[in-house]
Automatic annotation (TrEMBL), chain A:
UniProt keyword list: Cell membrane, Membrane, Transmembrane, Transmembrane helix, Transport
PROSITE patterns named in the record: ABC_TM1
Annotated transmembrane regions: 34-56, 98-119, 131-152, 182-203, 234-254, 293-317
GO BP field: transmembrane transport
UniProt similarity note: Belongs to the binding-protein-dependent transport system permease family.
Source organism phylogeny: Bacteria, Bacillati, Actinomycetota, Actinomycetes, Pseudonocardiales
Positions of the ABC transmembrane type-1 domain: 94-314
Cellular component aspect of the GO annotation: plasma membrane
Record's bilayer topology term: Multi-pass membrane protein
Subcellular compartments: Cell membrane
Full protein name: Cellobiose transport system permease protein
UniProtKB/TrEMBL annotation, chain B:
Pfam families: SBP_bac_8 (PF13416)
Family matches, as Gene3D superfamilies: Periplasmic binding protein-like II
Name of the protein described by the UniProt record: Cellobiose transport system substrate-binding protein
Annotated PROSITE patterns: PROKAR_LIPOPROTEIN (PS51257)
Organism: Lentzea waywayandensis
Superkingdom of the organism of origin: Bacteria
Length: 325, 420
C-alpha cells in the first residue's frame, strides 16, 4: 500500500514542472536515494511505538517501587536489581529457562535437520509431507498444551500407561524437576521441529546438485555428503534458526504455564516447588499475581540481557561449528 | 511527503486505538452496561428481564476464568480503561482491591448504606472500607461450608452412609482424619479426599483470624490455628490419603468421573462444579453433610463499580437490583449459589430446597445452618499473596517431595516474603 501511494504522489510532483530538467534529475536522484528509507519508515515507527518505547518505559519502571494498580510509589534506583541478584527464585527460574531451552532446542534443531534431509530426498507425495510437518505449528498452543497435559497425567495419562508396559512405575511428571522439564520440552519440540525443518528444506533445495554429483564421483557416502556439503551450504539458515529459537526458547511461557494445573486457579508458580517456572512465568507471577510491577520490569530487563547474551554466544558458536569461511 | 505518510500512519493507528476502546452509548442511543464476571453468577435470565423493563439499557456479560478476571481487572484499573462497568470481586481478593479503593466508586454516594441491613453483618463489612464509610461492593453469594461424600464408596469401606450418621462421624477435623484411617484400611485403592489443600483451607476458614490479625498485621508464624490446619492436612498427604489434585482442575474432573476420591469440602457454589465433573453417571452417589469443625465461609463475591465507567449511576441501579433479596433467592433456586442475606436463606422456600443430584440432600437447610454459625475469617490485604504459598507447600507434601515439617518451614519463609 505504501509503495503505490509513493508512486502516485511522486508523479504529479514531477509533471508540474516539466521544463526544469535539472530539478527532475535531482528529484529522481533523491527518489532513488531516499525512497527505500521512506518505505521502511513505517516499520521503525511501529517498532518505536510498540517495541522501543515499552523497552525504555520498562527500564524506567524497574527503577521504581511500582505497584500494578496504584502505579509509581517512588524512585528506588537499582534496589530492584540488587534484590533480584540475591533472589534464589530468580536464579531458579533462570536455571529452568536455560535447562528447558537446551533440552528443547538442541534435539529440536537436530531433528529438524534430519527431517529436512529426508524431505529433500524427493519422497512420494512430498507436498503432503511438507504441509504435514508444519501442522503442529499451526495448532494453537493452548490446544497442544491441553492435550500434552493429558498425555503426561499422573493417574490416567497415556505416557505412564505406555511406560507401564516396559515395567516403569508411573511418574509424577509435574512433581520432579527433570520429568517436568522433559515433558515441557516435548511440547516445545512438537510445535517447532516441523517449522524449522521447512526452513532447512528451503535452504537445502538451493544447494547446487552438481556438488553432490562430483562428491558421489569422488566416492563420498550420504553421511559424508550431508555433513560436508549440505550443512555448510545452509549455514546462514542454521544461524538464523539458532538465533530465533534462542529468542523464542528463552521466553518460554505458554507451554509451562498450561502444563501447571494451578495456572488456571490462583497458583501460577510453575510447579509446587517452582520446578518448571521459567523467567517469564516468574515475571508473570510477580507482576500479575503479586502486582509488583517494578520487580517484574526488572526481571523483564534481565531477561532481555540474558537473551542478548545467549543469542550472541550461540551465534558465535554455531558459526564456528557449522563450517569456516 | 514523508510527513503526510507519517500522518496517515498515525491516523490509522489512532483509529485502531479508538475503535478498540469502544463507546459506552450505542448507536441506538441506549446506555450500554457491561458486567465483568467469572464462573456462573446465574444472571442470564435476570439480565434479560432487566433489559425488558429498562428499555434504555443494554447489558453485556463478559465471563472469563477467575484468575484471568482478577489479572485483567488489575491491568484495566492500572491503565484507566477497559474495565467493565460492574465487576465481580471474589471474597479472596476483595481485600487486595480494597487497598486500591480510589479506583472504585464509593457506592455510599448513591445511598448504598441504606441497604446495609439486607446482608449478614460480616458480608457487608467485607465489602466496605474506612469503618463502613466507603462502600466498595454489594454482596452477591456466600460460600458456607458443607462436606460432600460418595455414599457408595463409604458403604464399601464399612462407613455409615446416612448424612446424619456421617455428620456424627466427624464433629472435629481430628475425627475426620480418623474416618480417613478407617476408610483407607478397608479400601486402600481409593483416596479419602481430593486434596489436602481444600481441607487446609476449610479448617482455616473456620477461624476468625488466619494469616493476618484483624489489625492487618501478619501473624501466620505465631498463629497456632494455621499450624494445626497445616498439620492436619499434611498428615492426610503424608499417609497418601489425598489424591494430590489441583482443586477444580482438569485432573480433578477426571478423578471425579473415575470416582477415585470419596470426600471433598464443598462450599455451596462447589456443588455445581462437582455435578459437572462427575457427570450423570454419579447422580445419587454424592451426598452433602455438615463439615467438621462448624461453620466457615469460602468464597462468595461482591459487585463493585470501577470509577472509569461512564454510567456509574445506572451501573449502581443494576448492581443493586442484581443483589437484592428477590434476585438472590431466584439465583439460589437456579444455580445453588447461597444468598448472603439472612432473610433469604432463612426463607421457608430456600430452607426446603433439596438437591436431586446429591441424593436429594436438603442443601437449603444444611448450608443455611452452616451460615448461621459461621464466623468469617479476617482477610488481610495480602491474604491472596500468602495463601497460595501454603497451598503449594501442601502439594509438595502430597507429591512426596518434602516432609510436612520441611514444607512448613519453607512455606513460612516464603510467606514472610510475600507479606512484606
Amino acid at each position: 500500500m505504501t509503495v503505490t501511494r509513493q508512486e502516485t504522489e511522486t508523479a504529479p510532483a514531477v509533471s508540474v514542472s516539466p521544463s526544469k530538467e535539472p530539478k527532475r534529475f535531482r528529484l529522481s536522484h533523491w527518489d532513488a536515494r531516499y525512497t527505500p528509507y521512506l518505505i521502511i519508515t513505517p516499520f521503525f515507527l511501529v517498532f518505536g511505538i510498540f517495541g522501543l518505547y515499552p523497552l525504555i518505559y520498562t527500564a524506567w519502571v524497574s527503577l521504581h517501587d511500582w505497584q500494578l494498580i496504584d502505579g509509581n510509589q517512588g524512585f528506588v534506583g537499582l534496589a530492584n536489581y540488587v534484590e533480584l541478584f540475591g533472589d534464589t527464585k530468580f536464579w531458579n527460574a533462570l536455571f529452568n529457562t536455560l535447562s528447558l531451552f537446551v533440552l528443547s532446542t538442541v534435539p529440536q534443531l537436530l531433528a529438524a535437520l534430519g527431517l529436512a534431509a529426508l524431505l529433500d530426498r524427493g519422497l512420494r507425495g512430498s507436498a503432503f509431507w511438507r504441509a504435514g510437518v508444519l501442522l503442529p505449528n499451526v495448532i494453537s498452543v493452548a490446544a497442544v498444551a491441553l492435550v500434552f497435559a493429558q498425555f503426561f497425567g499422573r493417574d490416567f495419562g497415556i505416557v505412564n500407561f505406555l511406560l507401564g508396559f516396559v515395567g516403569i512405575d508411573p511418574i509424577d511428571w509435574r512433581a520432579e524437576t527433570w520429568a517436568s522439564h522433559l515433558a515441557v520440552s516435548t511440547m516445545v519440540m512438537w510445535r517447532w521441529t516441523g517449522y524449522n525443518a521447512l526452513l532447512y528444506l528451503a535452504a537445502m533445495q538451493s544447494v547446487p546438485k552438481d556438488m553432490y554429483e562430483s562428491a558421489t564421483l569422488d566416492g563420498a557416502g550420504r553421511w559424508r555428503m550431508f555433513w560436508s556439503i549440505t550443512v555448510p551450504s545452509i549455514r546462514p539458515t542454521i544461524l538464523f534458526t539458532v538465533v530465533t529459537s534462542t529468542i523464542g526458547g528463552l521466553q518460554l511461557f505458554a507451554e509451562p504455564a498450561l502444563f501447571d494445573p494451578g495456572f488456571a486457579a490462583n497458583n501460577s508458580t510453575g510447579g509446587s516447588d517452582r520446578q518448571f517456572q521459567t523467567l517469564v512465568l516468574y515475571m508473570y507471577e510477580k507482576g500479575f499475581r503479586l502486582f509488583d510491577a517494578g520487580y517484574a520490569a526488572t526481571i523483564a530487563w534481565m531477561l532481555f540481557v540474558v537473551v542478548l547474551l545467549v543469542a550472541l554466544v550461540n551465534f558465535t558458536l554455531t558459526r564456528r561449528i557449522a563450517g569456516k569461511e | 511527503m514523508s510527513t503526510r505518510l507519517v500522518g496517515s500512519v498515525a491516523a490509522t493507528l489512532a483509529m485502531v486505538l479508538v475503535a478498540g476502546c469502544g463507546g459506552s452509548s450505542g448507536a441506538d442511543g441506549k446506555i450500554e452496561l457491561s458486567l465483568g464476571l467469572f464462573s456462573d453468577f446465574g444472571y442470564d435470565k435476570l439480565i434479560e428481564e432487566y433489559m425488558a423493563s429498562h428499555s434504555n439499557i443494554k447489558i453485556e456479560q463478559r465471563k472469563v476464568k477467575m484468575e484471568q478476571h482478577n489479572t485483567q481487572l488489575a491491568t484495566q484499573l492500572a491503565g484507566g480503561r477497559g474495565a467493565a462497568d460492574i465487576v465481580a470481586l471474589e471474597e479472596g481478593v476483595v481485600s487486595q482491591f480494597r487497598a486500591s479503593k480510589d479506583k472504585f466508586v464509593n457506592l455510599a454516594e448513591y445511598g448504598a448504606k441504606d441497604l446495609k441491613d439486607q446482608w449478614a453483618g460480616w458480608k457487608w463489612n467485607q465489602g466496605t472500607a474506612d469503618g463502613g464509610e466507603f462502600v466498595l461492593g454489594l454482596g452477591t453469594d456466600m460460600g458456607s461450608l458443607g462436606l460432600c461424600y460418595r455414599s457408595d464408596l463409604f458403604a464399601a469401606a464399612g462407613l455409615p452412609t446416612d448424612r446424619a450418621e456421617v455428620a456424627k462421624l466427624w464433629p472435629t477435623w481430628a475425627d475426620y482424619a480418623k474416618a480417613a484411617d478407617t476408610f483407607t484400611a478397608k479400601t486402600p485403592n481409593v483416596k479419602f479426599v481430593d486434596t489436602g489443600r481444600n481441607v487446609y483451607k476449610a479448617i482455616l476458614d473456620q477461624t476468625e483470624e488466619g494469616y493476618f490479625a484483624k489489625d492487618d498485621s501478619y501473624i501466620a508464624e505465631k498463629n497456632d490455628k494455621v499450624k494445626t490446619a497445616f498439620d492436619t492436612a499434611a498428615a492426610l498427604g503424608t499417609k497418601q490419603q489425598t489424591g494430590a489434585l489441583e482443586p477444580f482442575s482438569q485432573d480433578w474432573n477426571v478423578a471425579l468421573k473415575q470416582g477415585s476420591f470419596a470426600t471433598t469440602t464443598c462450599p455451596a457454589w462447589a456443588l455445581a462444579l462437582i455435578k459437572a465433573g462427575a457427570g450423570d453417571a454419579a447422580a445419587g452417589k454424592w451426598d452433602v453433610t455438615t463439615a467438621p469443625g462448624g461453620g466457615g465461609n469460602w468464597g462468595g463475591s461482591f459487585l463493585a463499580i470501577p470509577k472509569q465507567g461512564k454510567n456509574p449511576k445506572e451501573a449502581y441501579e443494576l448492581a443493586k437490583w442484581l443483589t437484592a433479596p428477590e434476585q438472590q433467592k431466584r439465583i439460589f433456586k437456579e444455580t445453588g449459589n447461597l444468598p448472603s442475606q439472612p432473610k433469604v436463606y432463612q426463607d421457608a422456600e430456600v430452607q426446603a430446597t433439596v438437591n436431586e443430584y446429591f441424593s436429594k440432600a436438603p442443601v437449603g437447610q444444611i448450608f443455611a445452618t452452616s451460615a448461621e454459625s459461621l464466623k468469617p475469617t479476617y482477610r488481610g490485604t495480602k491474604d491472596s499473596k500468602v495463601g497460595p504459598v501454603f497451598a503449594t507447600a501442601l502439594t509438595r507434601v502430597e507429591q512426596g517431595k518434602q516432609s510436612a515439617a520441611e514444607a512448613w518451614t519453607q512455606a513460612l519463609k516464603e510467606a514472610t516474603d510475600a507479606a512484606k
